[in-house]
Backbone:
């Protein structure tokens, strides 16, 4: 994600990213970013997920991404089919913070609405979630389970409909 900056009258810069792209390009939410998490790439300031960070909500309701040794924040995203939608359900672990967003594939969402989230989990945990998509998928799977390791590596199990119990059943039968 590319980082933008707001500047106050004293010249101080406040980094942020606008997440999501809803009706007519409106953002789902604004996430303020700690300076310590920003990297340089091709002359631009960016943030990359997963990262050792956590999302907190201030008393006034602002969302802030700040470094944390005990948490990891992932960006999960499920692409929709043409003129369809997508959804997900987190199976494991217990989520510390989740900030969901939508991406409209056209200005009003008529060509589809994809679903994503920034998810903060405890360090050392493996993120597992069930996903579904509708619409024209042109042969791509419509549901499955995705396992996201701490380093960001993803493993997909397509066309597994019933969550972790189905994976456990597969494991037993394939031994």
Residues:
């Amino acid at each position: 994600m590319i980082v933008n900056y707001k500047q106050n009258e004293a010249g101080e810069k406040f980094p942020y990213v606008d997440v999501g792209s809803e009706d007519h390009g409106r953002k789902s939410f604004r996430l303020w970013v700690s300076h310590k998490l920003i990297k340089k790439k091709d002359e631009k300031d960016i943030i990359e997920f997963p990262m050792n960070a956590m999302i907190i909500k201030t008393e006034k309701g602002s969302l802030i991404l700040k470094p944390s040794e005990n948490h990891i924040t992932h960006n999960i995203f499920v692409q929709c089919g043409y003129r369809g939608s997508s959804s997900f359900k987190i199976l494991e672990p217990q989520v510390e913070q989740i900030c969901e967003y939508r991406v409209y594939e056209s200005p009003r969402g008529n060509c589809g609405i994809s679903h994503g989230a920034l998810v903060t989990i405890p360090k050392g945990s493996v993120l597992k979630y069930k996903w579904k998509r509708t619409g024209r998928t042109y042969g791509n799977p419509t549901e499955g389970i995705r396992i996201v390791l701490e380093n960001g590596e993803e493993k997909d199990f397509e066309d597994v409909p019933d969550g972790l119990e189905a994976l456990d059943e597969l494991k037993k039968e394939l031994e």
Summary: The CA atoms of residues 76 and 93 lie 14 Å apart. The chain has one domain: 4-174. The two ends are 42 Å apart (CA to CA). Residues 4-174 form one domain.
